[in-house]
Design goal:
Blueprint lengths: L9 H12 L3 H30 L3 E2 L18 E9 L2 E8 L2 E8 L4 H12 L1 H16 L3 E3 L17 H4 L4 E8 L8 H12 L1 H10 L1
Antiparallel strand pairs: 1-2, 2-3, 3-4, 4-6, 5-6
Helix pairs in contact: 1-2
Length: 210
């Protein structure tokens, strides 16, 4: 049974700060205990506490797949967890040297799925629903991200009233806590829960559209 979530200790930030400088197996082996106690343990506890409402999270492995990468550094410089509710779609939480951030969205879409999402954006009712969801989130400080085409996708005109949304090949919405004191406390659990609840209409829109 996972331990109760009490926040991420400051050692978690220090660990990733140092890992960015010395991303080697020697460093990892020497500090693996810090990773297990200060990073993985609280992340497991956080996800377990959120699981009843949002579903089981996948806690990502700390090792990078370097088989086809130019960057051969062996370890990820962040610990993320993802609750999938649709293909590459769901809620996310992460800790790194830059602190904690939360978010949701779709991170990848096949040709047929992105076509369905764009068709929903093109539809006046459903597209306006999404535009209003995002407008409200942005007004409250959420940051919109994702891979965006430089021009209009095939079949759509640059004059489309929702062209900025249509250009997204992936669409994410995030909130950065950085180094705020709350990340070291049990109160972070409710903050993440509130964030994910706030993003639920967006996640449901994407899963319904795709």
């Amino acid at each position: 049974m996972p331990a109760e979530f009490t926040g991420f200790p400051s050692q978690a930030l220090d660990f990733y700060d140092d890992l960015e400088v010395d991303n080697t197996r020697t460093f990892w082996d020497k500090h693996k205990g810090t990773y297990e106690y200060s990073v993985k343990r609280p992340m497991v506890a956080l996800c377990a506490a959120l699981g009843e409402e949002f579903g089981e999270a996948k806690i990502f492995r700390p090792f990078r797949d370097v088989r086809f990468a130019k960057d051969k550094t062996p370890y990820k410089t962040a610990q993320g967890a993802f609750v999938e509710v649709g293909p590459a779609t769901g809620w996310y939480v992460e800790i790194s040297a830059r602190g904690v951030r939360t978010g949701a969205g779709f991170y990848d879409a096949s040709g047929s799925r992105i076509a369905h999402i764009r068709a929903a954006i093109d539809d006046d009712r459903r597209g306006n629903d999404l535009a209003q969801i995002i407008k409200k989130l942005e007004a409250n400080g959420w940051v919109i991200g994702g891979h965006v085409l430089k021009t209009a996708p095939r079949g759509y005109d640059l004059s489309h009233p929702r062209i900025e949304l249509l250009r997204h090949k992936s669409l994410t919405i995030g909130h950065d806590y950085g180094f705020e004191p709350i990340i070291h406390t049990p109160e972070l659990l409710e903050a993440v829960r509130d964030d994910w609840r706030t993003l639920r209409p967006f996640v449901e829109w994407v899963t319904d559209a795709g």
